[in-house]
Amino acid sequence: MSSSTEHRTDGRGRTTGSVLSGLAVAVGCVLFLGGFVWGALTYRPYTVPTDSMSPTIAAGARVLAERVDGSEIRRGDIVVFKDDVWGDLPMVKRVVGIGGDKVACCTKQGRLTVNAKPVEEPYLQGSGPASPVGFKAKVPAGQLFLLGDHRNDSLDSRVHLTDGDHGSVPRSAVNARVDARAWPLGSVGVMQRPAGFAAFPGGISQPGPVQPITLAVVAGAVLILGGAAYGPLARRRARKRG
Asked: Which residues does the Swiss-Prot or TrEMBL record annotate as the active site (predicted)?
């Protein structure tokens, strides 16, 4: 700020600079705290204990999962769910089929098919077939068919094919949809929706508000630090001029 701005007062002895500094801190607090509250109401943090979703999510990684209703889930989503048949513990898997779908593996090219259409799955671990063991299942209405991205090391719907629901879980079992990786730092980022499911009826889901939430928190922190730092800097400059 210029020296004229620093010395201009508002009639109560406060300089324009100090007024703007206080305003920056106030706005920063609103953005910072508002972003945290918004995030706390929208997301749940989870730690993925196994490598069944690698390389998309490594074992021990921390993810942010958006609180959603099971009816909002689309093919390709990575979800957090809990089902008594699967052990009644929170689990993280990818949805590859929804009610009415016929899911099968594998084609001669080693690909998964949904309703006889091959699906591109670039997120899979390794370059082999989409599943080391062939399978097929018809997903009942209101259910979801779930697989891990590390198909050689994932206990998923394939293990439960002989259950009454052909390995699927009800939509109501879903607690949240994974939207971003939060830890480790090298993997932080928004989870990309797989384009391989985009052409199916219903398409793919849209990312949650994790990016605007992050922007609000970061912008708030910058304004708070910048506004708070202005006062001492202005006083130091004033002493030097004096």
From this structure: 52, 93
